[in-house]
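Example record

The entry below shows one chain as it appears in the dataset: sequence first, then structure tokens.
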Amino acid sequence: MGDDGRRFMIERLDHFFLPPECPEVMFKLSVTWSSLAIGPGMTGMADVMAASFRVERGWTGAE
């Protein structure tokens, strides 16, 4: 529920990846939005984000 007590709907699109660089690992990209009016645009944006997803071995996130 929202802050004012009304219910609202959330949409989400999940993309799952098995990148050739790391075939033993599955990655998941989730895109979530709360306005139904922008659903088709967000779906397209999520597809573009998923297509640009890159994986590099050895990256730890600590750099």
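Notes for this example: The beta strands are 11-17, 27-33. The first helix runs from residue 39 to 51.
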